[in-house]
Amino acid sequence: MKYPNVVEFEVSGDYALFSDPIMRVGGEKYTYQVPTYEGLKGILSSTYWKPTLIWIVDAVRVMNQIQTEVKGIRPIKYTSGSNDLSFYTYLKNCRYQVRAHFEWNENRPELAGDRNEEKHHNIAKRMIQKGGRRDIFLGARECQGYVEPCVFGEGSGAYDELPELSFGLMYHGITYADEAYSPETANQMTARFWYPTMKKGIISFVRPEECPLTKPLRSMEIKPFGVEQDNFSGLTEFKEA
Question: What element of type H or E holds 173?
Answer without folding.
Answer: strand 170-175
